[in-house]
Amino acid sequence: MNQDTRLIDKDALLDVLEKVENSATFAARIIHAQEKYTAEKYSAESIIFASLSVVRDVINDAPAIHATDQIRHGHWICEYDWELGETDVTCSVCRDTRTVNGCYVSHKGESLYHDDNFCPYCGAKMDERDGGTQHGN
Prior knowledge:
Elements: E1 7-8, H1 10-22, H2 24-39, H3 44-61, E2 64-65, H4 67-70, E3 76-81, E4 86-91, E5 97-101
Antiparallel strand pairs: 1-2, 3-4, 4-5
Helix pairs in contact: 2-3
């Protein structure tokens, strides 16, 4: 995700949309758009586009969140099953577990699973060492 990415809090956006929807300003803008396009004999499709431009303005004005504030960091916890030849790989953040073929545990018991840089369930970035310190990524 690059630095220019703007993330929007879904709940905050829905709150803003609800307030705007109930406001006279929103209604006036839609009526104005309808009158303008109807007077110029535009189609209903044009009225919809005008309404969508109002919604676009609301989205652009919605409160943004910083991506770096939302990144959770974790590491893979691995337990090898010698009988099955499989490793249970668990996210240290959400504790969701999946099973992969092969051994991903060192002789010292350290996790050797590095195939995924992010947890597919919670999105945590897997850049911590087992002790909780972050790698230099």
